[in-house]
Structure formats: C-alpha cells, structure tokens
Design brief:
Collagenase (Catalytic Domain), four-stranded mixed sheet, 4 strands
Amino acid sequence: MILLENQTNFNIDTKILNSIVNYLNISKDIELLIVNNKNIRSLNREYRDKDIETDVLSFPLEDIDFMPLGSIVISIDKAKEMSELYKHCIDNEIALLFTHGLLHLLGYDHEIDNGEMRKKEQEIIEYFNLPKSLIVRAKGE
C-alpha cells in the first residue's frame, strides 16, 4: 500500500502507482511524499550534499517486518516541468518517477549496475505504456 503525504495542492491519483507496486509483487508499504522544488532541494542538500532541485529521491529503510520498504519523494514542480517538456500527462510523469524511485528502494542502482535497473525500468514502462525512462533521458538517448 502507498502511504501518501501530499505537501502540495496537486491531486495525486495513486491508481497506476498501486498497480506498479502490485506488478512488482511488493507486500510492504511505501511512503510517497509529494513536495515542491524548495523542499526536495533541502532534502537533496541534507542527504546527498547536492544543493540543487531534483525530480525524485529514494530513501530505503532497513528490512524489518513491520517497517515500510522506504520513502520516495517526488517534486511536483519537476514532474510538471518534465511532463510539459516531453509532452505527456503529469500522471504518467509521476508514475515514471515513482517507478524509478521504487526500483532504487528494491536495491537497483543504475550508476553502478550493468544495465539491470534500466532493463527492469523498461519492462515496467512497456507494460504500463509510460514515457521514456529517466535513465534513457539522462544519457540523452
């Protein structure tokens, strides 16, 4: 189940997000925070020493039975910006960001793996008919 904390005025539809969780057979709760650029920048600075806005952050938790899998933080400002830039709906952008963050919670890391995260992300994108992956965008493909 997704535990949504929406710190914005944007109405978040979690239907597709829950479908992605079910597709991946995840039984643990996932915290999802929707914030603005100012708040995500603050988190990025505090936890990653990067003083810039970003689109999505993931914070995995220890694997304890009653604890959530972790937290995903999405910047609604960045989601709006990217959905306009890539000309698709914001719900699809949020689903894409959520997928990316969720894979990080599951232990995938595109910065050090041999393409496993990109492959899994692509599988989900194709299944749910989502836009290009963040990994592909970052590489300019």
